[in-house]
Amino acid sequence: MVYCYAIGCNHRTGGAYSCSLFRFPIDPSERKKWADRCKRADREVNSHDRICSCHFVDGLKYNGPTIFVYSKNVYRFPDVPTKK
Which residues form the THAP-type domain (predicted)? Predict the structure, then answer.
C-alpha cells in the first residue's frame, strides 16, 4: 500500500478518498522543490514516495504541490518553558 508523503496526510492507494498519487519528478532541482514544500525532516524522498493530488491546485501534477496544512497540532512542537 502506498501512502502520501506529505506530513499529516493519510491518503493512500485503494482508500476512501478519490485522489491520485503522483511520483516525485526525476529532475533533481524539481524533486528538491517538491520535497522542500512537504517539510519532512524525518526522512529523505525515495523512488517509492508519492504525493496525492489533493496537494495540487485543481489536482493537476503540472501545477506542482502547493496545498499543505501546517499546524502546531500536527507537528507537536514542545512548548518552550518560560521563567516566572
Answer: 1-84
b/e 37-55 (16+ beta carbons within 10 angstroms → b):
bbeeeeeebeeebbbbbbb
Sign of torsion over alpha carbons 71, 1, 40, 66? negative
How many other CB atoms sit within 10 Å of the CB of residue 63?
Answer: 13
Q: What is the tens place of the pLDDT at every residue in 24-59?
A: 999 999 899 888 888 888 889 998 999 988 888 777
The pTM of the whole model exceeds 0.70: no
Contact indicator for 60, 32 with CB cutoff of 8 Å: no
CB 4 within 8 A of CB 52: yes
- Indicate the number of domains in the chain: 1
